[in-house]
Design brief:
The chain is an alpha/beta fold and 880 residues long. It is 47% helix and 16% strand. The chain is built from 36 helices and 33 strands. The protein has an eight-stranded mixed sheet. It has an eight-stranded parallel barrel with strand order 26-27-28-29-30-31-32-33, surrounded by five helices. Strands 1-2-7-5-6 form a five-stranded antiparallel sheet. It is elongated and about 105 Å long. The mean pLDDT is 92.
Length: 880
């Protein structure tokens, strides 16, 4: 039996979405429930996959089945494809299983050629009909040229504009049959001019080329980017829908429209939509003419409108969700051309979910499952005013590294950002790349724009933690930091110029675009409470400051999964003492310098424990290499030399000696504590003393610090540092005469740690997967440099996603699974979490649920996303 590549609409239903695509499955379902749909057929997603396997060709078997589908369509409709007396014209539309706006445009009126046009006009002498035929023909030539043959729309639009100008009319509808006939001839001439061949007149050739164009569009750049952003696998392919044309542009008794059963912006339960008389579908979407509100259709076409209202109720009750529909009225008769669950804003998604439960359409679990967690980002950050954004054109694009919208004056250094912000200026910090010492400037800026770096670069990670808008890795910027200027899209920007950046899309705009503050609606709390009922994993946050921790608690975090202590060292009042420690010659000198930092660290930890109100706090000991802390400015070097009683040259020699060829794999993490145990001692004292003080102040809380040793790759290494920690902690607790329990665990971020997890688990109270470094070490990519070549990997289909943004389940995931399976039997009390950036990515959270992790930890503003994603994972795949 040969494969079945083609299904009539009457052979399918909504359950066949994977094979027929969303559009095809829904057209079949609408026919099944008795709605007026032109009866056509769907070419399956498997045929698309086959097209690529056959070297981008449609094989004979598929084409045979397509022609059998056409024959069936001819029989049902009583018209013949390519016939001169009674021609059948068709539309060709794409339809992947996941809705992908903008992937492949529709082709209407396929099957027309000079002979068919002449025969149609000869059969109906009405001048209005002649105008309709030429209107359909010029539309077909333009669409086919643009969509199938990739001759840009602009050439044809220019000809239309010239024709309207010549005739002194404003709208396409004001052009006569003779004008449109002339346009069709001009369009064909333009086609030949651009491609060097005549416009194809054989309807079967037209159909085959159109189907190929739909399949080809699955691999176009915008489709690839959309798939990457929305976790849609390349292997799914797209289906093609071929259906008989119904004509909204036939006469004034006809028209076309698009409608939603609820408001997609707010979620309000009311019909929203637009309608155009004497028009085809693309006119509404493209905004060629200003359409009328859907309610006005009632005056124009009362019967069709009454039927449409019934269809809306029927569809929403059938799918139990807000519907987005396209329809056409031909001679007062309604035809449905598409329905799907409508795209909506996050605010609308929450309202619709809560309303559908109240109306009895959905259970709480179904309501939680229907919301895309990634959309919640937009609720928590400022956004651009929608109208202002529509009017603006981006001048460049980077990676949308931290969502939200920001506009302000350009500054080029962190110090300037802090200084300008202090005097009330709104600034956007533009850097080649950021480093830890930029932290104060980053805090002061409305947004951050970097030339280098990916989704897990320093700028991206820190910005997400602070909830600050960030666009990273815009390689098109030609930067001149020294002279405080850069060039983008041929335009020069200097300090103080205005710029606007969109951290969700990565778009960059010249000038100021108005922003609106984030609004969290009442439905947010309702949906989150439902999500918390279902999820089986805890959600913690990555937070280094009390402000971040407090924000995360407001958004539902149940603890801190990662506090990076090094960020505390960069504060003005303590960096000097830490630099003295680095440049000390003896243990005593180092201890003396660290003693100055101890009270600061202790205060930091006390504030964090207070903010967390007895919830767990995991504190990672110092991780970055020491060279990140040393001064770079001459004045700072001189100051350090003076405080240490050394010459400037000696200090410079020490600084030079700290530079490493590969610092990410150099002297950092627990290696620092092995070399300088006094650092671990000081940090342990601060952690334990802070815990004792807060526990005394709040006897009803359980303050139980979790001390995390980073970058361990060998059990003896962990033991070495843990011995220092426990000896110091136990001495502090004994001296205070109190009872306090604490835990010492480790980050699993080196492949060898995962491979020897059974040994490491003997001495660890917990594991936390640091998947930023684990991904880096497993792939052998530097996460700060990978952005330079990942684009080529996407284009070559080597990767479909950025492994730093979406957890690599095949490689990194296997190491995590292995570490759990090795570690748990050795230490059944071992609790396990993840604190890399992946902890806030929905598909990665789902994977963590399947591995059996106890918690995920993510930046504060991603906490709601993780809560929702964890609930969806538990609903779809409950743990035993």
């Amino acid at each position: 039996m040969s494969n079945k590549w083609v299904y009539l609409f009457t052979e399918g239903d909504a359950s066949m979405r994977n094979l027929l695509g969303g559009k095809g499955a829904n057209l079949a379902e609408m026919i099944k429930i008795g709605l007026p749909v032109p009866k056509g057929f769907t070419i399956t997603t498997e045929a698309c996959t086959q097209y690529y396997e056959d070297g981008r060709k449609i094989n004979d078997e598929i084409m045979e089945q397509v022609m059998a589908g056409v024959a069936e369509m001819e029989q049902v409709n009583g018209k013949k494809f390519g016939d001169h007396q009674n021609p059948l014209l068709v539309s060709v539309r794409s339809g992947a299983r996941a809705s992908m706006p903008g992937m492949m445009d529709t082709i209407l009126n396929l099957g027309l050629n000079d002979e068919v046009v002449a025969a149609m006009i000869a059969g109906n002498p009405d001048p209005k009909f002649e105008r309709f035929v030429y209107d359909s023909y010029r539309r077909f030539i333009q669409m086919f040229s643009d969509v199938v043959m990739e001759v840009g729309k602009k050439y044809f639009e220019k000809l239309i504009d010239e024709m309207k100008k010549e005739k002194g009319v404003q709208f396409d509808v004001d052009l006569t049959a003779a004008d449109l006939k002339k346009l069709a001839e001009q369009f064909k001439a333009e086609y030949k001019n651009q491609l060097g061949s005549d416009f194809p007149s054989d309807p079967i050739e037209q159909l085959k080329l159109a189907i190929e164009a739909v399949f080809r569009s699955w691999d176009n750049p915008r489709a690839n980017v959309y798939r990457r952003d929305n976790d849609i696998p390349y292997s799914w392919g797209t289906a093609v829908n071929v259906m008989p044309m119904v004509f909204g542009n036939l006469n004034d008794q006809s028209g076309t429209g698009v409608a939603f059963t609820r408001d997609p912006a707010t979620g309000e339960k009311k019909l929203m939509g637009e309608f155009l008389k004497n028009a085809q579908g693309e006119d509404v979407v493209a905004g060629v003419r200003t359409p009328m509100p859907i309610a006005q259709m009632e005056q124009e076409f009362p019967e069709a409108y009454a039927e449409f209202i019934k269809v809306c109720d029927l569809l929403e009750n059938h799918y139990h969700d807000m519907q987005d529909m396209e329809f056409t009225v031909e001679n007062q008769k309604l035809y449905m051309l598409q329905c799907r669950n409508g795209k909506r804003t996050a605010q609308a998604a929450l309202k619709i979910a809560v309303d559908l439960v109240a109306e009895g359409h959905k259970t709480e679990a179904e309501a939680v499952a229907m919301i895309d967690p990634r959309n919640l980002d937009t609720l928590l950050h400022p956004q651009f005013n929608a109208a202002a954004l529509k009017a603006a054109a981006p001048i460049g694009k980077g990676l949308g590294a931290s969502p939200g919208a920001a506009c302000g004056k350009i500054v080029f250094t962190a110090d300037d950002a802090a200084e300008w912000a202090a005097r009330g200026e709104k600034v956007v910090l533009v850097r080649l790349e950021t480093s830890p010492e930029d932290i104060t400037g980053m805090k002061s800026a409305q947004g951050i724009l970097t030339v280098r770096g990916g989704m897990t670069s320093h700028a991206a990670v820190v910005a997400r933690g602070m909830g600050t808008c960030c666009v990273s890795g815009c390689g098109d910027i030609i930067m001149d930091e020294e002279n405080k200027r850069f060039t983008l899209a041929g335009q020069e920007f200097t300090e103080g110029d205005f710029i606007s950046i969109d951290g969700t899309t990565g778009n960059i705009y010249a000038g100021l675009i108005e922003t609106v503050d984030a609004q969290i609606a009442g439905e947010f709390g309702t949906v989150m409470a439902w999500a918390d009922k279902f999820r089986q994993m805890k959600v913690r946050t990555n937070a280094d400051t009390p402000a971040d921790a407090k924000k995360a608690r407001e958004l539902g975090a149940e603890g801190i999964g990662l506090c990076r202590t090094e960020h505390m060292f960069f504060e003005e009042d303590r960096i000097a003492a830490f630099r003295e420690m680095i440049c000390s010659d003896t243990v005593e000198e180092r201890e003396e310098a660290l003693e100055k930092i101890l009270p600061y660290q202790q205060n930091d930890f006390e504030a964090l424990y207070e903010a967390l109100e007895g919830c767990p706090v995991t504190i990672r000991f110092l991780d970055p290499p020491l060279h990140e802390f040393v001064p770079t400015e001459e004045a700072d070097i001189a100051k350090l030399a003076e405080s240490k009683g050394k010459s400037v040259e000696e200090i410079k020699a020490i600084i030079d000696s700290l530079h490493e060829f590969n610092p990410m794999m150099g002297h950092r993490g627990c290696r620092l504590a092995v070399t300088y145990p006094e650092i671990a001692k000081m940090q342990t004292k601060a952690v334990i003393r802070a815990a004792i003080n807060v526990q005394k102040a709040h006897t009803d809380w359980t303050v139980r610090p979790e001390i995390m040793i980073p970058l361990v790759c060998e059990i003896k290494e962990l033991k070495n540092v843990k011995d220092v920690v426990t000896a110091t902690a136990d001495a502090e607790i004994a001296a205070a005469g109190v009872e306090l329990s604490y835990e010492v665990g480790t980050m699993i971020e080196i492949p060898r740690a995962a491979l020897t997890a059974d040994e490491i688990a003997k001495d660890a109270d917990f594991f936390c997967f640091g998947t930023n470094d684990l991904t880096q070490m497993t792939f052998g990519f530097s996460r700060d440099d990978a952005g330079k070549f990942l684009e080529a990997y996407y284009e070559s289909k080597i990767f479909e996603n950025d492994p730093f943004a979406k957890l690599d389940q095949n490689g990194v995931g296997k190491l995590m699974d292995l570490a759990i399976k090795l570690g748990k039997p050795v230490n059944p009390n071992l609790h396990i979490g993840i604190c890399g950036e992946h902890g806030g990515d929905p598909s990665s959270v789902e994977y963590c649920h399947s591995l059996g992790l106890d918690y995920v930890s993510c930046s504060p503003f991603r906490v709601p996303i993780a809560r929702l994603a964890a609930a969806q994972a538990a609903i779809a795949n409950p743990r035993k």
